Amino acid sequence: MSNLEQHPDEEVIITAVADRPEILEPREVPLGGQRALMVRRTLPQRARSLIGAWCFADSFGPTQAPAARTMDTRPHPHTGLQTVSWLYAGKLEHRDSVGSLAHIVPGQVNLMTAGRGIQHSEVSTEDARSLHGVQLWVALPEASRWTEPLFEHYVPSPVLHGDATVRVFLGELLGQSVPLTTFSPLVAAQVDVPAGGEVRLPVNPAFEHGLLVDAGRPVLNGVEAGADQLCYVPPGSAELVVRAGDAAVRALLIGGEPLGEQIVMWWNFVGRSHDEIVSFRQEWQSEVIGEADPEGRFGVVSGYDGDPLPAPVLPNARLQPRH
Asked: Which has the closest alpha carbon to 319: 282, 275, 274, 281?
């Protein structure tokens, strides 16, 4: 998925440590033009910009999709990050400039490593009668952000633990180790708890964690969260206790070691300075929007019916740290 905001803010992100759990509220963001897909964004925001290396979280749907291409995200670039696509309902087609063509349905994960640069598209298929899911981004650490681009797909097996069904799709949890490429210590899992149920999840105390709620009102370590809220737990917890009330809970658990690095994030780029972002944008506009260069930083997406997405105009000032 692309960040299609016409005036995207720049973000210089600094890992922070809180001394108690906190609730992060979503904000609605329209992606696209007249037929904009509305998403609920919980990362980044002024209250907290990262959870581990997780730097971006958009929830979307459930949205009716009576025809193909209800979601039609044109080819667009990424640098310095990984995208993680996870669905609750629907079906998406992924194409990218390393030659990948893959579909994703609920219970499967698409992981794309942008590294030094990639472009990709995501389109809902004709059998996606409803779209509902989450798009997440992971910032790559300095030592790995120039790595070669890569696409991976994985189908996790559900695990019963306590009253919950848990699907671990990144990192390690509950004895499950996911064979996908990561560049910093991370974890991600869907957690489903029936009404009145409880689950105790043993977690790495060096990690900070977030529980992104999709349904129900879970109580996480004594703090209640509602739909589309992100409940943050700082490092130090060796166990996360999730309790469901009168309604079943469905949520995503994300976590990781604090990144400990500043990053600049603007549009679909993650870099380290204003000048890097300017350079990435110039390359995209000249090598892709101008005249496609298969040997350029972002390559070419084959098989997509349409033009790539032009970059927004940069603000009329240097991108500055925003703490």
From this structure: 274
Give the separation between CA 145 and CA 18, rounded to whole angstroms.
27
The structure tokens listed for 78 are 């990424």
Is beta strand 130-139 parallel, antiparallel or unpaired with respect to 101-104?
unpaired
Q: How far apart are CA 62 and CA 39, in angstroms?
A: 10
- Which alpha helices (DSSP H) does 254-316 contain, by range? 274-284
* Residues spanned by the domain of 211: 11-256
Peptide bond between residue 44 and the one before it cis (omega within 30 degrees of 0): yes
Q: What percent of the chain has pLDDT over 90?
A: 78
161 close to 79: Cβ distance less than 8 angstroms: no
Q: Any idea what DSSP says for residue 308?
A: P
Q: What's the pLDDT tens digit per position in 105-158?
A: 999 999 999 999 999 999 988 877 788 999 999 999 999 999 999 999 999 999
* CA pair distance 141, 49, nearest whole angstrom: 15
Does residue 1 form part of some domain?
no
Q: Are the beta carbons of 276 and 284 closer than 8 angstroms?
A: no
Q: Determine the Cα–Cα distance for residues 123 and 101; give it in Å rounded to an integer.
A: 11
Using CA atoms, how far apart are residues 73 and 244, in angstroms rounded to an integer? 35
For 17-49, what is each residue's pLDDT tens digit? 444 689 999 999 987 655 567 899 999 988 888
Element (H, E) at 273: none
Flag whether 261 is in a domain: no
The answer to whether 118 and 98 have CB atoms below 8 angstroms apart is yes
- Rounded to whole angstroms, how far apart are CA atoms 317 and 294? 32
Contact 203, 175 (CB under 8 A): no
In a domain, 279, yes or no: no
Helix (H) or strand (E) holding 171: strand 164-173
| CATH assignment at residue 147 | 2.60.120.10
